[in-house]
Fold:
Amino acid sequence: MEYRRLGKSGLKVSEFSFGSWVTFANQVDVGPAKQLLTAAYDAGINFFDNAEGYEAGASEQVMGQAIQELGWGRDSFIVSSKVYWGGDKPTQRGLSAKHVTEACHAALKRLRVDHLDLYFCHRPDIDTPIEETVRAMHNLILQGKVIYWGTSEWSGQQITEAHLVARRDGLTPPTMEQPQYNLFERDKVERDYLPVYDTYGLGTTIWSPLASGLLTGKYNDGVPQDSRAALPGYDWLREIVEGPKGARRIPQIKALARIASDAGLPIHHMALLWCLANPRVSTVILGASRLEQLQDNLEALDHKAKLTPEVMDAIEEVVQNKPELPQRI
Structure:
């Protein structure tokens, strides 16, 4: 395991990290969670990702109990939460100072820690002024309840506005963004954020590196019953897999699998390493419901040398979706 700086901060995050979305409290309770967390931790993973919106907070409860029972030193790991979807009432949603603050306190209790290392605004909130959200995050940092704050699925313009507000008012700016990034979703990371990287030193903790499982090839012939897309309440994921977009991608996935095989890799290892090859990526968040699944994904790190320039070029020939960069004047 190697480590990368989180943007311009001094925090070193493992190149692979581990997240609990969909799995913890849904497919995984405390016992299996401890096994997964131990395997990740022993492999050198130091960042564990969570959110108030994951299983209505139950995911954080499972992770918090598991980490407490494992007895890790608090200075040896990084844990996150995200704020936006906390409940159905108006005061339980969005990025108002009230919800940002109360959601932080609730996450601390669920995760059984006294501070969050990373705290993300899970989506932009058009009903709350950015000034209000930036100040709320700044106040939590001053109180020692949050160390770094960031955004998730914000635009480059919105992140820039947050930095400008912070600079104008003497507040703490965001350090990191958590965007979706994979062979099929590239625009934000490779185009939209370019000015933010260069101007503000943005770090990225990317999610869905396997495109909701599409890039494992397991959905090539339909939805397996033991997959995420078959879970109750995840009809939106099934639609991604079985809908028109998913159907169009199946031939590409099969072509990518042939490239991976020729390089001596399974397709999912190639997809993970492709994400990691982007120096703008601080960490790639893995998800797993089974120990062998996590162990298999971690093995990708042993094969970085197989992702040669020739393999990268062959991948581009298949996906043909490299974002067009704005012309410099």
